[in-house]
Specification:
33% strand, 9 strands, 4-stranded antiparallel sheet, 3-stranded antiparallel sheet, alpha+beta
Length: 182
């Protein structure tokens, strides 16, 4: 690691690059929800590469059992043996689940499929939370997404936002260069 930061100029780095496995993201979100926020019935968190190549896309979903104490349903009056046979229903999150998921979502919405309740998370918000990004001071970018047999790797850069404190457009030499380059 020390060789990585060697340089021949006195300048501080403004960014760091991480390789995050999809399974690491899954585990972190799962532990955040179950251990920190004490959300009941989290079945699985799954990061999945939808598309790689020129316009890569990766998604993160949280799947929750419909009988979770944090999920409210309009099927509550239906006997459980019949409810298990029903695939769809209208599910809403209680305030505790909403507070846990809202910072990780672009648009908070619960859906249902195959007997599970799900919520799609925003990959940038998830990674930003993982890497403790302060959006006023830092940015994150996903530089590369690699699909593997049973996992994926996201190359993520966290960098400091550039703030130009001395934006003096009256620099004589810059003006001369601008004129020469026209």
């Amino acid at each position: 690691m020390s060789k990585l930061l060697e340089k021949a100029i006195n300048v501080e780095p403004v960014g760091v690059v991480y390789n995050l496995k999809g399974s690491t993201i899954d585990e972190w979100v799962y532990n955040l929800l179950t251990n920190k926020f004490n959300i009941d019935g989290v079945e699985v968190v799954k990061t999945n590469v939808i598309r790689d190549g020129k316009k890569p896309e990766v998604v993160v979903y949280v799947f929750i059992r419909p009988n979770s104490r944090n999920v409210k349903s309009n099927t509550a009056r239906i006997p459980e043996h019949l409810r298990k046979r029903m695939d769809e229903g209208v599910y809403t999150a209680d305030e505790h689940l909403r507070k846990a998921l809202l910072p990780l979502c672009d648009k908070f919405k619960l859906g249902t499929t195959r007997g599970l309740v799900f919520c799609k998370l925003d990959i940038f918000k998830v990674i930003g939370t993982m890497l403790v990004v302060n959006p006023k001071q830092q940015t994150i970018n996903i530089l590369d997404i690699a699909r593997m047999k049973k996992d994926s790797i996201l190359t993520v850069m966290k960098s400091t936002k550039f703030v130009n404190e001395n934006n003096d457009s009256a620099d004589k030499y810059s003006n001369i260069i601008n004129q020469l380059e026209r």
